[in-house]
Structures are given as structure tokens and as C-alpha cells.
Amino acid sequence: MTIQSFHPPKRTLMGPGPSDVYPRITEALSRPTIGHLDPEFVRMMDEVKELLQYAFRTSNALTLPISAPGSAGMEACFVNLVEPGDKVIVCTNGVFGGRMKENVERAGGEPVIVQGEWGRAVDVAEVEKTLQAHPDSKILAFVHAETSTGARSDAEALCRLAREHNCLTIVDAVTSLGGSELEVDGWGIDAIYSGTQKCLSCVPGISPVSFSEKAVEKISSRKHKVQSWFLDMNLIMGYWGKGTKRAYHHTAPVNAMYAFHEALVILQEEGIENAWARHKLHHNALAKGLEAMGLELVVPEGERLSQLNAVKIPDGVDDAQVRSELLSKYNLEIGAGLGNLAGKVWRIGLMGCSANQTNVLSCLGALQAVLGSDKNGAVAALEFYHSQG
Q1: Considering the entire predicted model, what is its pTM?
Q2: Binding residues
């Protein structure tokens, strides 16, 4: 058999990620490949760091993109900050809190779990009780935007508690960066990781991270070597440090970095606060349309993410069949539930350039057709848009 070139179908991506990619980003991928130590590439690396500091709202010197997906950013934070025997309080209110626990264990730490309800924000009061009960804890870890449920936790309050109890914080912002209010310096976050394929509307494969000065102090004073050579920040900074002279660490994904740079330029052009407001506007329109169709969102209004909407599947409706019809008839991708919510919810993403009025109205219209509903959610959403001017 002769295998031919792969040409993917054109989809509208409204699942939990990846999101649709800006055309400017696909164009950036096609630019000439140069060496990863070329002076011009090094100059662009410095721009990426500056743009990423803008996106994270931080002045942290150790702010850079890991040359691997968001899961590698997560692992980078844990393997650099958790030493054998360290007690780490981990908040789990969905799938990705569970992954944090796995990382603590693999780094030789002792996880203390604050078990939360799926579809709800992390309970700040329960975290405070746990910190009081474990005064020897070194780190508090939590997910800011839980992709499996659509719940947004109060990162500012949780970081404040951690500081009061002399703990560092590790924060998962894979789904929140660029789509929800996020203030690394203002909230006192010590280590944070994200991904490119969500609200930045870039191709998957890069993981932005940032470490505070306190986090850097802990990394530099470790008694044990970082368990991962590739993710050891002491080594990576030799390549991502300041100046034109860089120590070879790995061959960076050059063209993917062009794409990431372009994504951050687009975010800067829109303005970070404008991006947050845009995601909120289209989430509110989608919510109005879903409610008009008799569909219910899992997360209470005050705890919802704008960019990830978990919708309860009505009784008697076949989850997989609906998603399959949306894909085959409308080229529209929405996500299935994970973990405790598998088969119980659909996850509708409004991320990056996918967060727009056309997508909201098209999604509601397609859902109405597939469900055979006589309730027009698109009309309700359109009325909301008109009310917003």
C-alpha cells in the first residue's frame, strides 16, 4: 500500500481543546526554519519571554515556554519544586487535580488531598482547615480552571492562604491563560503552567511556565537533583537565559516557536483584558441559548469558566451519537465528559478565536437540529448579543 499525504477535514473546534488556530499562526509555521542558536532566533526568544510575561501578568525572570505540551509544563513545576519527603496539599475537584497528585508521588513527595466536588470551585475553607492541620506542608497545588468540569477556583484567595502558611503554590492555568482573569504577580503565584492550544489559539505542543523568585530559591537550594534532566530548570535557563550567548540544552521546535510568538503578538494586539471580556461575552450568549433550549450547565454561575462549558446531557439522549452527528453533519467538535462526568456532560469550548458570535450561533443551531428540539437557543443568544449593543 502506498501511503499518501494527509489532508485533515476542516472542523470547527468547540471542544475542550485544541481550539481553532488563527490563520496568522498557520502562516507563521510555514516560515523558513533557522537554527535554534541562530542570533535571530535568540532575539525572538527574548521577545517570547517578554510577551509571555505580559500574558501571565508577571515580571518573573524565569518565564519561558517548555518545548512540550501542557502536561510537561505541569511536570516541570512539580519535579523542580517537590523534593522527596515534601508534604504537598493537592486540591482535587476534577481530573487534572488528580494528575497533580500523581506528579507529587512520582517526585517522592507526600500528597495531602483536599477532595472537592466535581463541578464546583475548590472550597477555600476546606483548604484553610487542611493547612492548619498540616503546618509542615511545603506546597499548595490546585487547578485554576478545571478543564474536566468547567469550574473556576479562586486562585487569589488560595494563594493568599498559602502565603499565610508559608507554602509555595503550583497552579494549573492550562485552560485559563488568555481567557480568564489571571494575575501571577498580583495574586502571588509561585509556579504556574499552561498550554498553547486553548485560549491562545495556537497549535498544541508548547507549555508556558513561570516561577517566582521564591520558587527559584527553592529550586537552586535543592538537596536532590531534579528527577528529570530535560525539565530541570537549572539547565533550561542556560538556554532560555538573557543575552545572545546560550548554552545548548535541546533543539527547540523552531517553527512551533514562531507560531507561539505570533499567538502572543495577537493577544498583545487585542489586549489581555479585552480577551478576557470577549470570552465572557460569548460564554454569556451561549449560556442564554442553552438555557432557552432547556439545557443546564453543571457549574453554578459564579464559579463558571467562560471558555469551557459543561452541559448536562438530558435523560434518554445518547451522548456519543449526538457528538458523532455534530461531527459528521456539521463538522463541529464538542467534547465528552471525563472521569466522574463521563457520559453525563458535553464540554463545549469557547477558546481563543473559537470564542466568537458565529460559533455560538452555529453550535446552538446544530445542537437544536441534532436533538430535534423545537426550542431555538440561537434566537435567545442573538437577543442577548443585541442587548449588549
Answers
A1: 0.96
A2: 347
